[in-house]
Amino acid sequence: MKSIQLWCLALVLLFASCAPMTKDSYVKSYASFVDEVGKEHDNYSEKDWETKDEEFKQYVSEYYKEFEEDLTTEEKAELVKLAFKYNYYQYEKGVKDLEEIMESEDMKELEKTIEVLAKEGVQVMEELEPEFRKFGKKFVREFGDDIGDLLDKVGEGIDKLKEEVLEEQKRLRKELNKDGE
Question: Are residues 109 and 46 both part of a single domain?
Answer without folding.
Answer: no
